[in-house]
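Exercise 7. Given the encoded structure of a 329-residue chain, write a plausible sequence.
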């Protein structure tokens, strides 16, 4: 009996890894890469609408100054940090860094993440066989929008967007861009942490949650996923991307906020501040725990990142043993 139970436990542990392994092989094939490149070209054309000749109710010179003058400014106090807090805070939360590459036509802004807003969306559409029109007319929650590259792209694809950004200066910039390009009726940016969305205001409001490059920066990823699950209407879906580890086992690597991968304190461009970095099967298990169904998790070899997709098929309860927020719906 003990041997049978041990074998059953071993088989259950391996199952998510087998699923991730199959998808990973397809994801790294030349066909998948070529398809992603084709979609990326289409997305770049859509994003190119955001140039200064399309500005609404703002002069080009004023717009240019408002964008360029933000970069490099330290404003820890505006983010709510005291002098005693400063040493332990993320550099990008203190000093303004532009998020994604943006050619405004009359000037260009190089971003810390370069063209990842384009590449990420192309990979999502390719890996999970979603048509670009999948987002058209949908209410989308964009989590961690930085200076608004992803938000503008989602709007260009026809979505109505509520964007979240806990760093206030970035939230203000993303809203400024949306307003300057006449998207005020379709785009709202909230200077809010994901944990601040555990309210009736956000529940069952969205058709899609767009969640790339954030979950590994969170100290409580399961609660975050449950909040996002509750924010979706039944039938809605979520797209998640994360730094992670390439293993078939359901493992997470813990770094914590004290691990810095590169950059310098003087330049305030240090990278790191990562918490739990999941394998594909670990992320898949977390998403199922949060209530999601039709979970597909992938190790994407070309980028060395984890991608996942899931749907909310029905409102189901969450296991409450040990939850940091026991009363969460």
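Solution.
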């Amino acid at each position: 009996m003990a041997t049978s139970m041990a074998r059953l436990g071993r088989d259950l542990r391996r199952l998510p890894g087998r699923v991730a392994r199959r998808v990973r092989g397809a994801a790294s094939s030349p066909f998948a890469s070529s398809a992603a490149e084709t979609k990326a070209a289409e997305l770049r054309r859509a994003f190119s609408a955001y140039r200064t000749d399309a500005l609404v109710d703002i002069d080009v010179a004023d717009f240019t100054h408002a964008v360029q003058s933000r970069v490099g400014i330290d404003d820890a106090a505006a983010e709510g940090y005291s002098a005693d807090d400063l040493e332990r805070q993320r550099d990008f939360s203190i000093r303004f860094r532009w998020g994604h590459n943006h050619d405004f036509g009359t000037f260009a802004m190089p971003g810390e993440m370069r063209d990842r807003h384009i590449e990420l969306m192309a990979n999502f559409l390719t890996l999970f066989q979603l048509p670009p029109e999948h987002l058209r007319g949908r209410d989308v929650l964009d989590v961690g929008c930085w200076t608004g590259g992803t938000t503008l792209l989602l709007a260009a694809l026809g979505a109505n967007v509520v964007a979240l950004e806990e760093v206030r200066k970035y939230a203000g910039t993303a809203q400024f861009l949306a307003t300057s390009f006449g998207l005020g009726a379709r785009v709202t940016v909230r200077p809010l942490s994901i944990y601040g969305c555990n309210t009736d205001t956000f529940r069952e409001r969205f058709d899609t949650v767009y969640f790339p490059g954030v979950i590994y920066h969170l100290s409580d990823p399961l609660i975050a996923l449950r909040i996002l699950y509750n924010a979706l209407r039944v039938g809605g879906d979520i797209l998640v991307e994360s730094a992670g580890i390439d293993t078939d086992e359901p493992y997470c690597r813990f770094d914590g906020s004290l691990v810095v991968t590169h950059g310098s304190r003087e330049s305030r461009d240090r990278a790191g501040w990562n918490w739990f970095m999941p394998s594909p099967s670990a992320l898949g298990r977390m998403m199922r725990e949060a209530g999601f169904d039709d979970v597909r998790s992938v190790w994407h070899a070309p980028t060395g990142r984890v991608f996942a997709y899931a749907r909310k098929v029905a409102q189901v309860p969450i296991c409450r043993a040990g939850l940091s927020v026991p009363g969460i719906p």
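Remark. Residues 2-311 form a domain with the Rossmann fold fold (CATH 3.40.50.150). Students should compare their own answers with the one above.
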